[in-house]
Amino acid sequence: MKIDGRPYRTIWLADDGWSVEIIDQTRLPHDFAIARLTTVEEAAHAIRAMLVRGAPLIGATAAYGMALAAREAPDDQSLSRASDRLLATRPTAVNLRWALERMRRRLAELAPADRAVAAYAEAAALCDEDAAFNESIGTHGADLIRQAARKAGGRVVNVLTHCNAGWLATVDWGTALSPIYKAFEEGIRLHVWVDETRPRNQGASLTAWELNHHGVPHTVVVDNVGGHLMQHGMVDLCITGTDRTTASGDVCNKIGTYLKALAAHDNGVPFYVALPSPTIDWTIDDGVRQIPIEQREGSEVSALTGRTADGRIETVTITPEGSPVANYAFDVTPARLVTGLITERGVCPASREGLLSLFPAS
């Protein structure tokens, strides 16, 4: 996608041909900054501290983390330690485990002297695959927006999304935002309701930033306004992403997604979830009981960072001193509340049968 007319991915090789550059998403929306990764420890820190985030981009960063590790020490023991270090960074997004398993399979079949070159090639292939998957998700999802436009009879189509599932969460294009970008480029009249997505405000700081740079009409709203908008006919469909999807169609996404799905169900609003196939965890069926939910630092809830009127970036505390804080980062939306899953192979029901209809070999 483009920033001020220049195309960017979220992760790429630096000009030196071996270090890795990323967009530091902790600096957005007030500062567009590039960070450089030179070791597996720096890659792990980028994932843990959320310089990169979003399930597909976490996987891509882990893949390049393994390439950096292979460049430094390509023996089995060192690569195993590197993989364990990266895997421990964040527990919920399944793409992390998937990418590391893919890299380890590829490197295990090679002599240590050949591993670094192969690791960089495999990481690059993984990134290209992610971008292609997400563009295809956009094509299939744009059909749903097109249908909503016909139903709206020329009125602007209103889409509600939660958190950031745009190109910043992937290598390129995004998942939930990819259909919006495709539909917008087709000339479909649309408008996006952007949930702020507390506590890290990825909607307000990242999704709004993306849409603003792309010229897509949008409005930032507080997290709890979605039900009100749906009650008053102001949402035609919801599209979110997912960090892990079970074999039965349950979806785990940023905290608050479940409440949006409940409101959509109560008001007859279609609720779609967009995902590339590596986000499917075929090993589990019950998302509520089996998906590990990351709990992050309470400071993400008790403090807010923003830009003051005179341009300074400041962090302030918003909770009383001494009040305990819990910070559950994700929740699970049961498949029964999901209208359909948008994948690179098409749209299917949120069920084992639906997923197997598109991915029969899984």
Automatic annotation (TrEMBL):
SUPFAM superfamilies: NagB/RpiA/CoA transferase-like (SSF100950). The active site is at 243 (proton donor). It comes from the Bacteria. Pathway: Amino-acid biosynthesis; L-methionine biosynthesis via salvage pathway; L-methionine from S-methyl-5-thio-alpha-D-ribose 1-phosphate: step 1/6. It is an enzyme of class 5 (isomerase). Keywords: Amino-acid biosynthesis, Isomerase, Methionine biosynthesis. Substrate binds at residues 53-55, 90, 202, 253-254. It catalyses: 5-(methylsulfanyl)-alpha-D-ribose 1-phosphate = 5-(methylsulfanyl)-D-ribulose 1-phosphate. Its EC number is 5.3.1.23. GO terms for molecular function: S-methyl-5-thioribose-1-phosphate isomerase activity. Transmembrane segments: none annotated. The keyword Magnesium does not apply. InterPro entries: IF-2B-related, IF-M1Pi, IF_2B-like_C, Initiation_fac_2B_a/b/d, M1Pi_N, NagB/RpiA_transferase-like. The record marks 163 as: Transition state stabilizer. Catalyzes the interconversion of methylthioribose-1-phosphate (MTR-1-P) into methylthioribulose-1-phosphate (MTRu-1-P). Belongs to the EIF-2B alpha/beta/delta subunits family. MtnA subfamily. This is Methylthioribose-1-phosphate isomerase. It comes from Skermanella cutis.
